[in-house]
Amino acid sequence: MTDPDWRHLPSLSSLRAFEAAARLGGFSAAARALNVTHAAVAQQVRGLEAELGLTLFRREGRGLALTPVGARLTQALSEGFGAIARGVEDARLAERERGLRVTSTPAFAQSVLLPRLGNFWAAHPDVPITLTPGFDLVDLARDGYDVAIRSGQGDWPGLVAEPLLRTRVVLVGTPALAGRDPDISRLPWILSSKDTLDDQWLATAGLYRKDLVVHALDEPMLAVAAGLQGYGLFFATDIIVAQALAEGHLTELPFPGLPDFNFWIATLPGTRSPALEAFVAWLKETFADAPAVKPGG
Predict the structure, then answer these.
(1) pLDDT tens across 157-198, in order?
(2) Residue 97 class from Cβ within 10 Å (0-12 exposed, 13-18 middle, 19+ buried)?
(3) Dist CA 45 CA 20 (whole Å)
(4) Are 184 and 252 in contact (CB under 8 A)?
(5) For residue 59, what are the CA distances in angstroms to 23, 55, 149?
(6) Are 205 and 198 in contact (CB under 8 A)?
(7) Residue 52 to residue 14: CA distance in whole angstroms
(8) Burial class for 70, CB neighbours closer than 10 Å (0-12, 13-18, 19+)
(9) Which end of the chain offers a freer environment for a tag, N or C, measured as fewer CB atoms within 10 Å?
(10) 284: pLDDT confidence band, cut at 50, 70 and 90?
(11) How far apart are CA 148 and CA 267, in angstroms?
(12) Continuous segment of H or E residues that includes residue 12
């Protein structure tokens, strides 16, 4: 297939006006189909004839008839515009069928997003969502994601970051475990073997891993599950354990110096699909009553 030489092709608007007039039998019908005036179509067609140096229509009574060269051009344009229309519709259909690809941390996906997704689908049953949990900072463009829910400062190059909510890190345990001994250093703990943040937070209270009874679990949701069984105290963001706290399965213990985390909606710049617009709007509405993101944080 030969690449088109766009420098020597007439404008698409004039080709479209001619094709519509030829297919529909006149300038008036073409004007109605294109939502322009009769004069605009006539001007486009006359301009096309002048540019090509060809007569595409001839007068026949009160109407117009295609010349042989006009008929050949009409056939080629009809086939070309038809192929364009089919390609555009195929692209739209493929995008609708693909749905939205959403990524977040496993804990946020399981404890925060998944329990609320039913509300989104109730309002938008035609929008499929693929939710992919993961710890890695994915490249949205390269990996084909539409939106990421991330914690951090919202300053990721090449992305649009919109504030979603702020959470606190809290120390929690079952009421039975917390009531066993007022000295938390004598209680068992569930800590990550990899995350140095645990050690930093402990140090703010003068506690050190080597002096504690520690069960090491590196997957946050396993740590929550173990904590709910009373196996140890553990650190978590308050939104992850909000339901367990509200239902009394966990209780918060006082602990100094624990930080806040901001969560953001990260998307690629550019035009958003209606489905993505609806999902982002739903996220903002769903968490509108949550603590606001701290500026600069």
Answers:
(1) 999 999 999 999 999 999 999 999 999 999 999 999 877 889
(2) exposed
(3) 10
(4) no
(5) 16, 11, 64
(6) no
(7) 11
(8) buried
(9) N
(10) very high
(11) 7
(12) helix 12-24
Nearest one of 151, 142, 178, 162 to 254, comparing CA atoms: 178
DSSP character string of 4-55: P-GGGSPPHHHHHHHHHHHHHTSHHHHHHHHTS-HHHHHHHHHHHHHHHT--
User: How many whole angstroms separate alpha carbon 275 and alpha carbon 283?
Assistant: 12
Give the fold, CATH level 3, of 167-260: D-Maltodextrin-Binding Protein; domain 2 (3.40.190)
Query: Is the pLDDT confidence value at 257 over 90?
Result: yes
Q: How far apart are CA 297 and CA 295, in angstroms?
A: 5
Q: Are 293 and 166 in contact (CB under 8 A)?
A: yes
The yes-or-no verdict on residue 90 having pLDDT over 80 is no
Query: For residue range 201-240, what is the model confidence (pLDDT) as tens digits?
Result: 999 999 999 999 999 998 888 999 999 999 999 999 999 9
Token pair recorded at residue 80: 């070309």
Give the pTM.
0.69
Give the DSSP letter of residue 233. B
The CATH number of 6-97 is 1.10.10.10
Q: What is the DSSP letter of 225?
A: H
Domain 98-162+261-286 classification at class level: alpha beta
Tell me which amino acid residue 155 is: D
Per-domain residue ranges of the chain: 6-97, 98-162+261-286, 167-260
DSSP element (H, E) containing 176: helix 175-178
Structure tokens at 173: 């345990």
Per-residue confidence (pLDDT) for residue 256, from 0 to 100: 94
Three-class SS of residue 29? helix
Asked whether 14 and 48 are in contact (CB, 8 A), the reply is yes
